[in-house]
Structures are given as C-alpha cells and as structure tokens.
Specification:
Radius of gyration: 39 Å
CATH topology of the domain at 173-266: Nuclear Transport Factor 2, Chain: A
Structural class: alpha+beta
CATH architecture of the domain at 173-266: Roll
Order of helices and strands: HHHHHHHHEEEHEE
Number of strands: 5
Strand content: 5-15%
Distance between the termini: 135 Å
Amino acid sequence: MTEIVQKIKSIQWQHYIFILLIAAIGVCSNGCKTTGKLSKKEQKAQIETAKKMLSEIINGTSSKSLETQLRTVNDIANRHYKDPEIDRMVEDARQVLKNAFAERDKQKQEQVDAARAELLDMLQNKDEKSADELEAELSKIKALNLGNKDINDLIAKVEQMIAGMRTHKTVPLKNQIENAFQGIADASKSGNSSQVMSLTRSTLQLFSSDDAPVLIIISREGPDYDKPTNIKLYLEFLRDQKASRNAVDSYMFDSEGKIKELDLIKK
C-alpha cells in the first residue's frame, strides 16, 4: 500500500515539473519577441523619431553640441532604415554639420589671430600701460581658453613681463635696443671686445634670426630708406663705426614675440 502511494506522489510531482517547464518556455517566448525583429508599428515610430532628430539638426534648432549631433546622424545612418527620406535627410544633416564645423573652426582661428595681435601689442607696450592694466587685458584672453600652443607661449611671455614690471621698473623695448646699440658702439670705442661680444649676443636674442631685416629711414617723405641690411650686419656696423647715429622708429614681432623687422631713423 505504501509503495502505491509513493508512486502516485511521484507521478504528481513529475506532472507539476512538466507544467512549470511549459510555463517557463512560454515566458521565454514572450520575452524573445521584445528583443527580436521590430513590428511595423515600432519601426514606424523609430523612423519618425529619427526624422525629428534629423530635422532639428538640419534646421539648426538642436541644442546638442556639434559632436553629439554628428554621432546622432551616424547612428541613424548605421540603422539602415531603408527609408529614402531618411537617407536624404542624413546627407543634408551631414552637410549642415560640415558647414557648422568649418564655421566654428573659422571663428576659432579669428579668435587666435586677434589674441596673437593683442599679445604682441602687450609685449611691445607702446602705450606704456601699467602691470595691472596689462594683467586685466591678459585675463580676458586667458578666459577664451583657446588651447593654441603659440598663444599659450605668448601668454607666458606676457606673464613674465608683468612679473618683471611688478618687481622692478622694466625698461621699454625701444630703450633696450637703443641702449644696446649705444653700448656696443661705446664698448668698441674703448676697446672692450668682450663687452662688445656680450652685448651683441644678448641683442641678437631679441630678434627672430640674425637675418632679421633692418631698414633705416633717411626721410619720412616717400618715405626714403637707406640701403637695407640685417640685424647682425648692423651690429657689426656699430662696432666698426664706434658710434650709434640711429634711433628706433618701429618694429614688428613674429608669432614667438621676437622682432622680425626693425625700422630705424637717423637722429
């Protein structure tokens, strides 16, 4: 009797297990439908969403960054909706973004060029601005965060100049050049060759190269210039003449803040 009861119970448990397996298979089947092929209704909804996002990009109403917009366009293109209108909109959106990136790069370059010009003017400091005034102007340029190596190098030079102005009175560049010219002439006249060489080396460091052109204005009418030379030859001329007869009229900087051209005028 006991054996019969146990067999009946065993059959009942097998029946329950079978029912649970069938139920599990049913759940799996329903779950697989959500990750498998999209229904026509779901695909239509995705296409409409894609068109909406592309329209915002094409019309310039998207609030997302250009990089994010480009990723959105590429993601839509990679879904291969096989919808002619989406294909056309993808191409239009890519062209819009291409133009937007080009415009942004153009504006960035204009900012870089303007910042470079301002920094070079600050290094020259023809208006003899105070350290505080220069620092205020420099802060505005730094706030742009241009991330350009040349600009960062010029910023460092202006910062160094401002620091020098705060610790001691800085001699304007015009006076530095004229003092160096006079020093070379005086040292040569007194026969101090070592001082001549030292002043020559330190003066050349202010220039972009030994071949930096030097123009001497004879008359402002025209204007009329003497035979052009370069800074190295001009310093040798000062050494040989043992006299400095020209004053600094103007100069131009290169992107590194070095003098690339010097104009002198007869005293």
